[in-house]
Amino acid sequence: MDLQSLAGLFDSTLHQDPALRQNAENQLQQLESHEGFLTTLLQMIGMADITTGIKQAASIYFKNRIRRSWSGSARALEQYPPINEGERTFAKENILGAIYASSQAIKLQLTECFGVMLKFDFPEKWPQLMVQLKELLHAQDAQKVYTGILALLEVIKAYRYATAKRDMLDEIAKELLPQVQQIADQAIVADDDLAMRMAWVSFKCYYNSIQSGIPPSFKESNNLVAWGTSFIKMIEKPVAFDRDAISEEAAQEPVWKAKKWAIRSVNRLYSRFGNPALLPSGSVKKHSAFAKLFTANFLPQIMQVYLKQIEGYTTGHVWMSLRVRGFISQFLSDCVKEKSAWKLLKPHVEGIVAHFIFPQMCFSEADQELWEDNPVEYVQKRIDPIDDFGSANMAASNLLVDFAIDRKKSTLSIILDFINKVLATYAQSPVEARDPRSKDGVLNMMGALCSVLSSRKSPIAYKLEEFLLTHVVPEFKSKYGFLRARALDTFCRYSGVEFSNLLVTQGVFESVLGLLNDPELPVRVHAALALQPMIENEAIRNQISGHLPDVMQVFLNLTNEIDSDTITHVIEEFVEIFADKMAPFALQLGQQLCDTFMRVMGDAASNPQDLSNADIDDISDKTMAAAGVLKTLGTLVINLESSPEVVYQLEEVVFPVIRFVLEQRLIDLYDEVYEILDCCMFSVKAVSPNAWTLFGTIYHSFKNDGIDFIEEMLPSLDNYVSYGIDLVAANNEVQSRLFDIIETVMKSDRVGENDRVCACKLAEAIMLHGRGKVDGMIPGFISLAAAYLLVADAIQTSALLVHALEVVLNALHYNPVITLNVLEQYKWTEGIFTRLIQNISKFSRVHDKKLLILGLASVLSVPAEHLPSALQSGLIPLFEGILQTFRSYGTAIEARDAIEKMYEGEGDLDDEYDNLENEFEWDGNEDDELEGFEDDDDNADDYDNELLKQLAGKASKALGSDEDDDDNLGSDDDDYDADLEEEFSLETPLDSINAYIFFQDKLTEIQNANAAVYGAIVQGLNQENSQYVQSLINEANKQRAELASQQ
């Protein structure tokens, strides 16, 4: 392939004429599959007489070619031409040389290519690579050494999370990282960019080597000393800077990146392997020796270095980027939890709080700029923890909280004294001399400490009302928008504080209500959030009722201004609390919510196409906001259960949104739209014509990609069956589609057993609701279940085992004659019933036990001459299976009722939680008198563990024990998972059937109409079982009388 011609084509791709560019790109695409194309690209990139622009264009094309085709996978070969072996060999032999000869920008492109190549070829197809790397790391040419470190970093990154090939990384760390440490040490003393890049990449090599484990060589004392010395040298390296001119952009310069990665490496080493208090219980034995070495020999030095850096930063002699400040705060947070580290840190708490934490928690110039230029982003950073996760402000706040929680006796008075001092200074200063940013900072600190200061036994809890009324509420009228927003945020955090005067509460409410119309977006948002907890107060609820339409309109306007699910959560709670007042304007609210949804997802609306391939990072914020809107719609619908006519009207505006989501394949919103559909049908207890028009859309969605969402679809599909069974029974197409959904899920290797359970549940719903109406579907259901029940190891979980057996039991309850004919036709009778009898003990829930009783009893009602021979000789085991189930049936009902009461708050779990909280001493023991190394682990989790143990005990007691159930009839493998949990929301036609009365009636029916079967059963019972049958009859008579008296 002619190199100059190829260079000319790449030159044309940079031309201003779009037609010329397109023509060149088309030719390059055609040449891509030609032999020698990749080789020529790499040669071109390494040539000195080719312009930089052409080289960059070629390097990007080279990178894309490698990324798409190097794996050689079937999927890659379907879409892109393969790379032949000759070009692969040439690329591996020359890629390092090309990296060496290239500019920095192209180095990064080629290094990424190198990483892809070694991922698939090293070490088996690239055995000489380690030799090449060693030669580069020991070269005299600095650029070659830098190339070697870049390449080594890619090798380490390829193995950083590996477990099976961890030995490879350990060997690399032992053989090559000592040389890398020497390279870093030599680079630190230099000041040029290349040296700093070498130091920076060297530290990244170390950092990535300790991602999922620590190489044994790193635990050696001399290794820790060597690397530790390099880290300290880099962190302490003086760097000149202009205090007035430096900005966050400087953090991208090599010297600051080198400092950052030195600090990250130290932090990672300490938090994962060097801090005894943070070692997981399973790692203590493995890493305790290194943790002792670290805390004894390195921690004092690094603590001194970090504290010196903080001092330099607070005095203006050291510059720290936001990320570095965050990393240092994280390190100090880890030190708070460990005894020896805390002793070193404790004397400096006051200075750290006042000069390091506090300034970072104040409203900054950067905050002001963001407030003015992009208030939406400002709000998102303040109200969404994910958006602010890892920030310097959040890290400083976390450090403050760690001080207050883990070392409260030593730090809380210091923190509160500082806050009081700042508040007093602010209050005593003339208005024009007050510093609003310092007030913002201390309110921010108080907000961060709310969980500590407002806890039940907080010694200052009684002062919080005064604090709010004196220092917070007055700032609702501040002339500074950011201070109004901060005051609202602080008030919201302390929403649990009750004012002693109702008039004060109402006055505060009026102030917050007024701020909903503040000219500043962040203030309006925080006013909405502050209003949310206030509606828990009955007086405020009554007061807000008259403002409800206006308030809801403000909320909706906010959702149009900011894409955040936080505001929609507020709307959702208002809808739930004021459900009885929503009906008059529910349709308007629903329409506005739908309009908001379509605006948020406007890209999809204006460009209807399959969005499943869209970059989720680009639409994640919009998707979360849209999901919040949909959840609010669902809440609105479910709270209109008493107004079915309004729900029908809402369907007119809501269902187009559901159809839009399904047709555009917005899979991240499937859960929400199916929940809305479920709520609509459940609220009116019917399937409207509008809902039936969606059924076809749902089916087509399932056939496209909806099989992955069968669990989300199930409640809606169940509603179509439960409330629309007459149409299902009369419409063969609907039956066909429902069966296709069930069959596809049962047969597809794309889904798991939980999904197959959903298919079984849908089949059950059809049989229970359609008794006598869907005979043609029964054989298919039985066949799908038998395919799993009669194949060894086809079922891995007890959930699928039980539900597959219940498909058969439902079929027996539906029509035992049809079911037994199908089983006999395919010679499945003996196998199915054997599997059933062996696993009776796994039917643990009330619904399962009742269905088992009804299904087996239905078999006994079949005339003896129509019973399969396998069952004629097995009547006694079937009947004893019914008796066995009854023996635990009453206990199961009691356990279910007890747990349901707990979930509804009627049990004593809440009291148990309160008792445990009361036992927790807010002051605690003297937290500076921790025990030795073995007991250094923080005990903060002990309280939670104790609570969990007691709750588990309560649940276990309520559930009882079914251990004896396993003794009678045996069971399948013991490898199945635990018993199924009760589904309290499950409503089926079985709920109206009394199992005791059903059994008595069925027994009478058998006695009168099926004497042969009845005789075989009676003669085969022993005395104990005969007496138990009589007790069941007595219980049936008792319950029949109770039911009669209630009518």
UniProtKB/TrEMBL annotation:
SMART domains reported for this sequence: IBN_N
Keyword Acetylation on entry: no
One Pfam entry name: Cse1
Name of the protein in question: Nonsense-mediated mRNA decay protein 5
Chain segments carrying region Disordered: 954-976
Biological process terms in GO annotation: protein import into nucleus
Domain of life of the organism encoding this protein: Eukaryota
Comp. bias (Acidic residues): 961-976
Keyword Transcription attached: no
Localization, UniProt: Cytoplasm; Nucleus
Domain called Importin N-terminal: residue spans: 24-101
Keywords: Cytoplasm, Nucleus, Protein transport, Transport
Entry coiled-coil feature ranges: none
SUPFAM superfamilies assigned to the protein according to its UniProt record, in alphabetical order: ARM repeat (SSF48371)
Gene Ontology molecular function: any one: small GTPase binding
Cellular compartments per GO CC: cytosol; nuclear envelope
Organism: Coemansia spiralis
